[in-house]
């Protein structure tokens, strides 16, 4: 039998994810729904499930709202085994039990995302996120904050919480503190909404890599530039090659999306987008604008 578990769900709205997770809890488990303010709609969440509790994190200072919410949730957690998750994907009925089973066999574990675009730019970038994001996360066993399970003793608890309250990326930092095994379980996560939102998200993704893995930024930039040149100077072979590459990645993770055909233009577009993202001084996330000076130097502009 799995030990009592605390599930952390940062959200400001009364999403369906709350009920999806709550119905999977045992009587000894708890779900902490963490919002920013008492005025957030989820703050009035009822007591339909007795082991669901709303926690108000308050305004962040020197870190992102997500990092502040996770840090607050970890401080409020009753149990030693923890799960982080998000409200932007479906949690199937066996989701929590499957994480427990995997943890008992492998130790700290994390599942995977597949970003599904909802505006023209995020749709175009799907192959990039599949190759660099889904495949990259799986190949390097990075933690994804949407579905990760670990225990207190698996990391330096106090140091992690201290650093979490002075940075932007919760799972970027977690990957530095925690050795996880990536499970080949993929959750579709809808992103985008508007082109502006997609650009801001792309800037954040790029700067997370830059702050936590600067050498990876160099390698990715070099490889992407070579691929883009290949696409421009040998378009026929490059078009076939990049499409086959993306097709293989999609198939490996069991994803069927017509966007696999966009790999060729996506790779070309990635070069100017990466340059733009690396030169941007600020980005918007969750209604706040951040200036990320260094890994542990975060300024909230608005």
From TrEMBL:
Gene3D superfamilies: Spore Coat Polysaccharide Biosynthesis Protein SpsA, Chain A
EC number: 2.4.-.-
SUPFAM superfamilies xref list: Nucleotide-diphospho-sugar transferases
Subcellular location: Membrane
Superkingdom: Archaea
Matching InterPro entries: Ceramide_glucosylTrfase (IPR025993), Glyco_trans_2-like (IPR001173), Nucleotide-diphossugar_trans (IPR029044)
Main location: membrane
Membrane topology: Multi-pass membrane protein
Class in the EC hierarchy, top level: transferase
Keyword ATP-binding attributed: no
UniProt domain Glycosyltransferase 2-like: residue ranges: 17-109
GO molecular function, one term: ceramide glucosyltransferase activity
Ranges that cross the membrane: 218-238, 258-279
Any GO CC annotation of this UniProt entry: membrane
Pathway: Sphingolipid metabolism; Lipid metabolism; sphingolipid metabolism
UniProt entry keywords in alphabetical sequence: Glycosyltransferase, Membrane, Transferase, Transmembrane, Transmembrane helix
PANTHER family tied to this protein: CERAMIDE GLUCOSYLTRANSFERASE
Name this protein carries in UniProt: Glycosyltransferase
Lineage: Archaea, Methanobacteriati, Methanobacteriota, Stenosarchaea group, Halobacteria
